[in-house]
Amino acid sequence: MAGSSSYLSTLFEYWGNLGRNSVARLEAASADIRDRRYGAERLMSDVLGTWMDGVEGWWSALLSSVSPTVPTVFFRLTEGLTKAKNLSVPISAPGTAQPGWTDLVRLGGTPGQRIPRENVNVVINEARNALEVSLVGLGQVHPQEGHYQGMVYIEERPLATIQVLVSR
Length: 168
Known about the structure:
There is one protein chain. The protein contains 3 helices and 9 strands; from the N terminus they run ααβββββββαββ. By secondary structure, it is α+β, with helices and mostly antiparallel strands. It has 2 domains: 4-63; 72-167, Immunoglobulin-like (Sandwich), CATH 2.60.40.10. Strand 8 (146-154) and strand 9 (157-167) form a beta hairpin. Helix 1 runs antiparallel to helix 2 (40-63).
């Protein structure tokens, strides 16, 4: 079961997202009002959208169905690099099962370009609330310029996505 820090993290993340969404709506509405493009239809849309964003948290609390966001581990590499810094993200890993992960597949470009899962190390800490990801043996793989994506999971639950951006 997730600890209180996970619940507090989810709570703060929810209110932070609600605040960001509300500010974004307000800024867009302000700009459209100045340009005289804001009408009753947009007002109703903004009111209902803000209300739905707010009520989502209350329904989740009542129904105990808060679905945590899936964190992203993001590596930015230069082509030809053989080593990458280890990165970690907070997670909530259920049970005692060990994680599995996929190859990091290049999005777009020539089919079949990937960073094999053997070149990705994934470790969950003892408290099962943090995930550390490292890329190893990049000199053997020689990832080409592009965007690579993979996933870390336990059983049927995604724990994190892994994004790698290789540039020149």
